[in-house]
Amino acid sequence: MLVSLLLTDANGERLLHGAAPSLPAAYNDVIDGLEIAEGLGSCGAAAFRKQPVYVTDISVDPGWVDFRDLAAEHGLAACWSSPILSASQDLLGTFALYYQSPRSPTESDLELISLVTHTAALAIERKRVQDALGDEKRLLETLNRTGTLLAGELDLQTVVQSVTDAGVDLTGAEFGAFFYNKVDEAGETYQLYTLSGVDPAAFEKFPMPRNTEIFAPTFGGNGIVRADDIRTDPRYGKNAPNKGMPDGHLPVASYLAVPVISNTGEVTGGLFFGHKDTGVFTERHEQLMEGIAGQAAVALDNATLYRAAQHEIEHRKVAEEALQQLNENLETRVTQVIKERHKAEEALRQAQKMESIGQLTGGVAHDFNNLLQVISGNLQLLGKAVAGEERSEAHIRNALAGVSRGSKLASQLLAFGRRQPLEPKVINIGRLVTGLDDMLRRTLGDEIEVQSRMADDLWTVFADPNQIENALLNMTINARDAMAGQGKLTVEIENAALDEVYARSNPDVVPGQFVVLSVSDTGSGMPPEVMERVFEPFFTTKPEGHGTGLGLSMVYGFARQSNGHVKIYSEQGEGTTIKLYLPRAEDEEESTEVHELTPVTGGDETILVVEDDEGVRATAVEMLTDLGYRVLKAPEASSALAIVESGVAIDMLFTDVMMPGPLRSTELVKKTQALMPGIAVLYTSGYSQDAIVHGGRLDEGVNLLPKPYPQEALARKVRAVLDARSADPDIDADAPPALVTSTSRTLDDQPTVDTGPTVAAPIAHGSPEPQPDPTTDAGRILLVEDDALIRMGTAAMLEDLGHDVAEAGRASDALTTLQASSYSVLVTDIGLPDASGVELAAQARDLAPDLGVVFATGRDALPEGGPDVPGAVILTKPYSTGALRRAIEDAAKWRA
Q: Are the C-beta atoms of 683 and 655 separated by less than 8 Å?
């Protein structure tokens, strides 16, 4: 007796091999896939009838005509087959007994067959229910995972790949593909976008599919197409296994095609799935893929819109409006569906935030530089008045150093906001960096090993060499701090090409050729949450007072302004690498001439100063007058034009870039040059915006003196511009400027002319500043501040108030001083190198309970979580002498 168990396929049309350990393998191979029909042996007929078919002699039974020889070949003479039916009488398979001689079943045989088929039915049903539950669970998980991904995904490649992968998983296909509905001019070609379940190399040698009967219906709006066997499907004719496909193509029998239709009704593309076996895909698969295709259509629409917005983002107003609309749509959808933004959306949000901060910093820098210019100019003029007074000169030097630091801070703000006027040149970065080697080694110190690697045949770049130096210095300082002063720093320069693949994951990159400046360190590295914010302005992991958080922001801004790119790679405990990419220039390197500084000289020419800020205008007028120039002044462009049209001779127009009123500074220059073709022009600004700077670069032929400027820089720049005008062969230096006097207007006020020294009036801000009170108690003050400039200035203010002052730069030094002597008040910064000022104050109170405490800080409140210091006074920086005096008096009232 030989036993065989056959199971129905998914469509219930064929019998598949289940188990037949005693039957020959060759026989099982032929029977596997047997069609359920009359005349196809005992099993085919039993399955068809759902009734037992007992053939006692195969050699004479008409139902075995097609398989008689096969049975004889393997010594099979009788076959008793019984259908296996479910409780609902659905066909599950067949159970058959074979004998090697003719034989009829006995009563006991029939009882055995009945028992086996009943038991098999229970086992098969249970297994199928378990499989169905498992399949349903997997299906739901796949649907949920795919739906969640599609709801928040904005990358086109990821959307398409995820949908195709999900289709293969849900249908059981051997492979799947997504084709875009992009037909060529002849209407013959579609575009393959992604594959799943098969190596893309399998399709590389084939052209795109043609507009055949197989593909055309899907793109023609005919809905879902499913074929159990595409080779025999009447819709496609009697096709060979690979009909409609090139030789060597993967074999396809079962076929499922699902159109992806956008919300406009357009067929965006099609999902195609194949399997070498027949009858794999079912109506259930159609329903599942129709739902997936609907989700995919929405995701593709969003991803396509997102990609279009990214490509258009540089087109100013149009790009901004498209981006705003896209962001509104995306934010609404993300709020409703998912909690996490995709990487590309996060990059876009960061870019917008940085752009907004950049615009803000530009305006702040303009006002800040104006204030610095007033302070700097008056300090320099005051310096001449107090020459020889050592104490006063020290105060002025200290104040000017503070102005210099403020100017550097404003410059970093402008660099981040991409508002710093660049003066690019075609340069070789390798030669530039080589020249900076000594400076870098001095900056890093002896404990850091510096290694440089430069590729041969470096390309040139078109960039501002000064900004490259600043960027390199900021990257190396950041590396030095990460290594705590010890380790190895590597500077590498090489050529590189960034392709479309890289650009897709980095929205600010335009594919092309670049020169890469890399700085690598062996420091502590960064965690992911720090890397995400490392280029944000004012973000720093350093203690308060030990970094502005603008160094790497400046590198980021310079890279973007130079059409470049910056990338950071870091791993905790392994170190950090920062790569600055600058676009390749096609020209040869420009020769660099070294100009020796000439002595500072003035002149006797006439200069028209146009400046809306009264303090800046007064300071500029006095500095120019001090240099010997004859000075005219105007508060805005219209008044300046009136002076020009009055007919007075003018040698130079010195104008601020940004001014109020209907007439812009650039228009003033054009009108003035039309009236006076030979006039010299010098712009000044703390924030040039787009008036004379385009693409981040100073317009050709424009002279600019950035604010704040010292008198020496003003003198050199004015003299250079005037001398350049005199050297121009097209200008007659001895002839007066050509004038055209307006006859259509009269001037009620004659031009204001400054011909001698004047003293700039102080600018009032609020109530008058209290003067030092000579009766103030001359108590002993311990001043703790790690910033040397601030410490020097505050100590001088305290001494002017009559106090005896001891100074310290660290908390540990302050505690040592307190242990050695007594003091009435402790004035301390909050951010100190070795401890917080609050912790210092608490420890100081332990030593001297009646010690008054003043916290001098840039904050308006103490940090949370620190120790309690009763009676402490908060003095907000910057502070005046009067505010300092009042803080000392209030703190001195404390008694334990």
A: yes
Per-residue model confidence (pLDDT) at position 741? 34
Binned at pLDDT 50, 70 and 90, residue 459 comes out as: very high
Burial 128-162 (b: 16+ CB within 10 A, else e): eeeeeeeeeeeeeebbeebeebbbbbbbbebbbbb
How much of the chain exceeds pLDDT 90, in percent?
A: 26
Of 3-7, 301-305, 859-863, which one has max mean pLDDT? 3-7
For the sheet with 825-829, list strands across it. Answer: 804-808, 780-784, 825-829, 852-857, 873-876
Question: Regarding the domain delimited by 780-892, which CATH topology (the fold level of the hierarchy) does it fall under?
Answer: Rossmann fold (3.40.50)
- Please answer whether residues 555 and 580 qualify as being in contact, where contact means their C-beta atoms are separated by less than 8 angstroms: yes
DSSP single-letter state for residue 382 = H
Of 382-391, 461-470, 778-787, give the lowest mean pLDDT range: 382-391
* Residue that is written with structure tokens 């590498």 in the block: 492
Superfamily designation of domain 153-312? GAF domain (3.30.450.40)
Which residues pair with residue 261 across a beta bridge? Answer: 267
Matching residue, tokens 């995820």: 162
Q: How far apart are CA 481 and CA 476, in angstroms?
A: 9
DSSP string, 585-646: ESSPPPP-PPPPPPPP-----EEEEE-S-HHHHHHHHHHHHHTT-EEEEESSHHHHHHHHHT
* CATH class as words, domain 606-754: alpha beta
Q: What is the mean pLDDT of the chain?
A: 79
CB 463 within 8 A of CB 582: yes
Q: Do the beta carbons of residue 24 and residue 8 sit within 8 Å?
A: no
- 2-131: CATH, from 3.40.190.10, 3.40.50.410, 2.120.10.10, 3.30.450.40: 3.30.450.40
- For the ranges 34-38, 137-141, 559-563, 843-847, the lowest mean pLDDT is seen at 137-141
Q: If you count them, how many residues does the chain have? A: 896
Closest CA to 274 of 172, 204, 203: 172
Distances (CA, A) of 581 to 17, 194, 371, 451: 63, 31, 36, 20
Topology, domain 434-585: Heat Shock Protein 90 (3.30.565)
Structure tokens at 574: 């392994």
- Omega before residue 878 within 30° of 0, cis: yes
Q: How many CA atoms lie within 13 A of 89 on its CB side?
A: 4
* Number of Cβ within a 10 Å radius of residue 53: 23
* Mean pLDDT of the 151-159 span: 73
How confident is the model at residue 216, as a pLDDT?
73
Q: Identify which has the larger pLDDT, 504 or 872.
A: 872
